[in-house]
Design brief:
Helix content is 6%, strand content 55%. By secondary structure, the protein is mostly beta strands. It has a single domain, classed as Porin. The strands form three sheets. The protein has a 16-stranded antiparallel beta barrel with strand order 1-2-3-4-5-6-7-10-11-14-15-16-17-18-19-20. A two-stranded antiparallel sheet has the order 8-9. The chain is globular, with a radius of gyration of 22 Å.
Length: 396
């Protein structure tokens, strides 16, 4: 009891006072959307907004709370409020991190909880948001939609004059259905990452003509086998930043549970960032596959790949960005498939930051895509989609 009392007194002392930090944002946006059902409404559109979405929208309210228990121990949770889809209040991340203070060349840390996997140099802001654009690339839209590591991650970092090298690895569970979205829906561009407790709307065509809405629960454990990933990153004052990630959820593609199939999903990802004066260059590529074997008579594998390049120009209160995306899926199945797609997109954005707490962004996305599955719904396989957003965001 004396030891416990002494420990509590140490926590309450000024040298070990618990610190709480909170930050976030809320936004509203004026939208001009394409005339096609959006992905959120069960359609095969590639963008967040679609038919009947023109007009003013209240966006997401994102908040991140951080409790600094000790200098080396922090608890972080990121939540979202949006009554338009799924639960009005949902979690995006929640984890605890232990990183001892280090004055030497080596530093290590461990993280436990639910968090986004590494790799993105684009979505480095609160709530999986991007500094340069409203809507992230196809790659990082997919990561936000389907992937969440619920488990433990360890990182070892070596620091030297002018740079650092870090190696991370994780074991995780509760992401066995990951792969169903990229296979059934294909690549999309959306700034709404999936909440941990929200069901995921899949294309209505995934219901095989049932006429009912189709949902999946992505963050669930189905086979009792942990997945894993590894991330090698390098940062240099002269070269910039680069990373390579390998991800494998190790799902058993034969498992069916609660009317869901486990998708064996694995991929390689590589990214690069370079600062050239006021210009920032970002590039990322991803290539992988996802497989299901729901019966001895049927097997389906979807190969997916995408890449983007972004150029940003920082003029202080004004930011300009241009990004080009290319993406593709190829499905190989026991029976003929109509899930192949090829597409590309161009995103242009301009941001004005008159105050630290206020942001205005105009963004235009022009997307060209062919997906054979649309023919089943009586639509042309080829679609052009254009989406414009004018966003006002308040930070707190």
């Amino acid at each position: 009891m004396k030891r416990l009392t002494l420990f509590l007194l140490c926590l309450a002392s000024p040298a070990h006072a618990i610190d709480f930090q909170f930050a976030g944002y809320g936004d509203a946006r004026l939208v001009m959307a394409p005339h096609i059902d959006s992905l959120i409404d069960g359609g095969l559109g590639k963008l967040r907004y679609g038919e009947d979405d023109n007009g003013l929208h209240i966006g997401d309210i994102i908040g991140e709370g951080r409790v600094i228990v000790l200098p080396e121990l922090t608890l972080t949770a990121t939540g979202r409020i949006n009554a338009a889809y799924g639960p009005a209040i949902d979690l995006l991340e929640a984890y605890i991190r232990y990183r001892p203070v280090s004055t030497g060349a080596w530093r290590w840390s461990v993280k436990l909880g639910a968090f986004f996997p590494p790799g993105s140099l684009e979505n480095d802001q609160i709530g999986w948001s991007s500094f340069w654009t409203i809507t992230p690339s196809a790659i990082n839209s997919w990561v936000g939609e389907e992937l969440r590591a619920i488990g433990a991650e360890g990182t070892a970092e070596y620091r030297y004059d002018g740079g650092s090298v870090a190696l991370s690895g994780a074991l995780f569970g509760w992401n066995d259905p990951a792969g169903v979205v990229i296979a059934e829906e294909g690549w999309t561009l959306t700034d709404r990452p999936q909440g941990l407790f929200s069901p995921t709307r899949l294309p209505d065509l995934a219901g095989f003509g049932s006429g009912s809405e189709v949902y999946g629960n992505l963050f669930t454990e189905m086979d009792g086998r942990p997945g894993w990933y590894g991330d090698l990153s390098w940062q240099s004052d002269d070269f910039g930043q680069a990373n390579v990630v390998y991800y494998d959820n190790e799902a058993d593609p034969r498992v069916i549970k609660d009317n869901q199939i486990a998708w064996a999903t694995r991929f390689w990802e590589a990214g690069f960032e370079k600062q050239l004066g006021k210009f920032t260059l970002l590039a990322q590529g991803l290539s992988g596959a996802t497989t299901i074997i729901p019966s001895p008579f049927y097997r389906q594998t979807t190969d997916f790949r995408a890449a983007y390049a972004l150029v940003g120009y920082d003029m202080g209160p004004l930011l300009f960005a241009a990004r080009g995306d290319i993406f593709q899926t190829r499905t190989r199945a026991t029976f003929p498939s109509d899930l192949n797609e090829d597409g590309h997109a161009v995103t242009l954005s301009m941001t004005w930051l008159p105050e630290k707490w206020l942001r205005f962004t105009g963004e235009l996305i022009a997307l060209d895509d062919r997906r054979d599955e649309r023919v089943l719904a009586g639509d042309p396989a080829h679609q052009d989609e254009t989406q414009f957003q004018l966003l006002a965001r308040v930070y707190f």
